[in-house]
Design goal:
It contains twelve helices and nine strands. With 282 residues, it is of the alpha+beta class. The protein folds into three domains: 156 residues, no CATH class; 62 residues, no CATH class; 37 residues, no CATH class. The strands form four sheets. A three-stranded antiparallel beta sheet has the order 1-2-3. Strands 4-5 form a two-stranded antiparallel ribbon. Helix 3 crosses helix 5 and helix 5 runs parallel beside helix 10. The radius of gyration is 22 Å and the shape is globular. Bound molecules: zinc ion. Zinc ion binds next to loops.
């Protein structure tokens, strides 16, 4: 069953219409096997390309689009892609998310578990929230400037940019505003940055919790792409063994097994385990 999600900005098509409603499906074993082939690259840097490919595979429908490609996903805002990654994580692995934090005080180092619900992280944007504006107009000393939120294509471009940090920042901002960043005064730049930060376009993914031993504050900023990629990669390590086990016991073909989503595969494996242990199946 696909999961539904309402994006904040969505995809803006050629005639300016918004496509915000998403139906997500879990990755099938076949998709996981394909990802496992590029596992090393994925885990090493969780590069934008790979994340867009995973998300496109799992988006069954995006508004009026039924054949969603990585290019469509790359056209979504950073916040929308983070929401997609979280929703996919919840769909494949579950709503509960337990993160382990280590106290930063060197004389303490205590570990603390932080328990989150993915649905709560998504809540603010998931009901009937109005669409986020495509452009913001910002009053600055340099005049009225237009600003938009960065998309995946902007993030991909940023990753590929060479030069000093200042040059890279200027090139990145020039994609988002209708002015020349390098020619702007400091106040105008600050106003633009503040508008983007306060736009609510990104889900709030920073968490703080007191250390159970010394009460120091443990802080964490969740990166949904790293989280998704890391958890998917953990599963792919076991994929071959799972296919072997299901093929051996049920006599199914590799192709049929790889057509199952992870949750279904794991349910059959659990049934097998129960049967082999002589426990009741229901
Ligand atoms: Zn502590």
């Amino acid at each position: 069953m696909p999961a539904e999600l309402l994006l904040r900005r969505g995809l803006v098509d050629d005639v300016g219409d918004r496509h915000r409603r998403v139906a997500l499906r879990p990755l099938a074993g076949r998709d996981e096997a394909r990802l496992a082939d590029r596992d090393d690259a994925l885990v090493a840097q969780s590069d934008e390309d790979a994340v867009h490919e995973v998300l496109a595979t799992c988006v069954e429908r995006l508004g009026g689009y039924r054949d969603v490609t990585p290019v469509h996903v790359a056209a979504l805002s950073r916040g929308d892609r983070q929401r997609l990654a979280l929703a996919l994580r919840a769909l494949m692995i579950g709503d509960q998310l337990v993160l382990t934090l280590r106290c930063p005080r060197p004389d303490c180092g205590e570990l603390a578990d932080l328990e989150l619900r993915v649905s709560a992280l998504l809540d603010e944007g998931s009901t009937d929230a109005p669409a986020e504006p495509e452009w913001w107009t910002v009053d600055t000393p340099a005049g009225k400037l237009r600003l938009r939120t960065p998309t995946g294509a902007d993030d991909e471009a940023l990753a590929a940019l060479a030069g000093s940090p200042a040059e890279r920042a200027a090139a990145f901002w020039n994609r988002l505003i209708d002015a020349d960043w390098a020619a702007l005064d400091t106040t105008s730049r600050q106003l633009l940055a503040r508008t983007l930060a306060g736009s609510g376009s990104l889900p709030d993914l920073t968490f703080a919790s007191p250390c159970p031993a010394c009460r120091a504050l443990l802080e964490l900023e969740l990166n949904p792409f790293d989280l998704l990629v890391r958890e998917l990669a953990l599963g792919t390590d076991r994929l071959l063994a799972e296919v072997h086990c299901l093929a051996f016991h049920y006599g199914w073909s590799e192709d049929a097994i790889l057509g199952l989503p992870r949750a279904r595969r794991w349910r059959y494996l659990e049934l097998l385990r129960q049967q082999l242990d002589g426990r009741p199946l229901v």
